[in-house]
Amino acid sequence: MSDLYRNPGPSGLDRAFAIAYGPWGVALLVLLLTGIRLGMLSPADAPPVMPEEARPWLLGLSPRPGYADAAPLLPWILGLISETCGSASPCLRLIAPIAHGLVAWMMYLLGRMLFDARTGFWTALTYITLPMVVEGSLIVDSMALVLLAWAVGLHAMARLSRPGAVGRAAAGTWLVLGASVGFGLLAHPVMAVFVLAMVAYLAISPEFRGQGLWVGLALAVLTAAALYGPEVAWHAAHDWQGYRRLWGALTGGEPDVWALGWAVFVGVLMFGPVLATALIRAMARLPLELRGGAFADYRVRLLVVFTTPVLLLTLTLTLVLETGAALTAPAAVAACLLVVGWKVVREAVNWLRAAIAVNLLLFVVLTSGVPFSRHCGWVPPAWFDPVASGRGWEDTGTWLRRLADAYPDTDIGVAGDGAPVIIYQARARGVIAHEVGTGQDAGTAFTGLLVMPEALAENGGDIRARLSILLDDGRRRAWAAVMVAP
């Protein structure tokens, strides 16, 4: 790792593609792949809308709901998209491929700044073909926004780390750093881990000692506070409910070792088995490299600090949080730079080509393997199907359409864990329904047709309709519509 940055230059086949290493070539590549992914969002090709996607969409319909995880950015964006583009699945997922495309461009800029344009090209190409990115481009998720904020923040840190950068006029870079932190915190609380890594990096880096650090850091803090401060003020005025739920999730759950093991397994698959193997090898060599003085190079220090501690801390959080391996996604930014830079300098570009091919093959297996298995007569279990949680909900929209026609001028409410995705399916068919039992209306009495899981409606309720769906893998979903009188 310590010889990571003595690049002997391109050779052979790489010279023939040298034009692709420039900004225009990479920009064209990113635009092309982003356009392909936007095309894959068509309802015929895209996976079904899942409950975890419908939840932020539903929150975005309210001007200011109580966000469970104190992260309103994705609901705000989805609310704006719903008003301008609509709620169809291509509109719902529009932000995902665009955000990942921007991250790929930032990865190129990072690789070019820390190493050279050739490394930037391979870093962008490797990132955009990671299974977590290919899959994440088809499903809307707050992590796409976090990765964008993380990559922009890391780029700002790289600019500030260059020799003499802190002493020069770098106010704009500090402002960008603060803005990335502010937007990242609005996207997901995991951005706080970036702040911890940043503080650790500043503390051990001699480049940041002196008066310029405090002036710049004050600019960054003020910028982040200006963006995230209103969110804190809102929660303060509402008894810190969002933060209370977040803190309760962190402290109230029992550590689940199985969840940690599963997160590691899924994380290896999503980062790519070949890349993950190289990352594990690099982390194992880290003590030897530290004794050899590798941290004297700010590039090694920056990438290691934003990879190893971040990965360990986010993996620890998976012990008590249900988000699983997705929580470790931000570590992929620096990890991808670390591994690709190492391989490019060692002239192991063929190794990178193989890693990219394995990643794409893995994605094809994960996405096409389930339909192919079904076509061959074998239905895989739910844990093998990456979109299993989204199957079976489409029929609820048609069912609610019939209910709305049968009971005109009757309010329709939905209760239960699946309420957001049922409401989404209803809206897609022109039926207005709202969630009952949560949010600002939690204490309000409801009258009308209340849709709930069938098991909850069997206690003597006035059941007007039922819907039962048996999925191919043997799971059953059943709902009942109960008339609630004043």
What features would you describe in this structure?
- It is a single chain.
- By secondary structure, the protein is mainly alpha-helical.
- It has two domains: 306 residues, no CATH class; 96 residues, no CATH class.
- It contains 21 helices and five strands.
- A five-stranded mixed beta sheet has the order 2-1-3-5-4.
- β4 and β5 form a beta hairpin.
- α2 runs antiparallel to α6.
- The chain is globular, with a radius of gyration of 24 Å.
- The mean pLDDT is 85.
Classify the secondary structure makeup into a structural class.
mainly alpha
Please tell me the total number of domains: 2
Report the sheet with the most strands, covering strand number, pairing sense and barrel closure. Answer: 5 strands, mixed
Strand content: 5-15%
Supply the key terms.
single chain; 486 residues; mainly alpha; 2 domains; five-stranded mixed beta sheet; 6% strand
Spell out the blueprint of helices and strands.
Elements: H1 13-16, H2 23-39, H3 51-60, H4 73-84, H5 89-92, H6 95-114, H7 117-128, H8 131-136, H9 142-161, H10 171-187, H11 191-204, H12 211-237, H13 241-252, H14 257-271, H15 273-291, H16 298-305, H17 308-317, H18 331-345, H19 349-375, H20 394-406, E1 412-414, H21 419-427, E2 434-435, E3 448-453, E4 463-470, E5 476-484
Parallel strand pairs: 1-2, 1-3
Antiparallel strand pairs: 3-5, 4-5
